[in-house]
Amino acid sequence: MKQLEVQIMGQNYLLGCPPGGEARLLEAVERVDTAMCK
Prior knowledge:
By secondary structure, this protein is α+β, with helices and mostly antiparallel strands. It has one domain: Double Stranded RNA Binding Domain, CATH 3.30.160. About 40% of the residues lie in helices and about 35% in strands. The chain has one helix and two strands; from the N terminus they run E-E-H. It has one helix at about 20-35, and strands spanning about 1-10, 10-15. The longest helix has 15 residues, at about 20-35.
């Protein structure tokens, strides 16, 4: 499992995803961060 450090609402999180899933995870994080920061 691949781990990525991401930031949502200024907080850092370490999230896991399957190999090859990095792009989808980063897109989801961006959508969540945008929605929560409105």
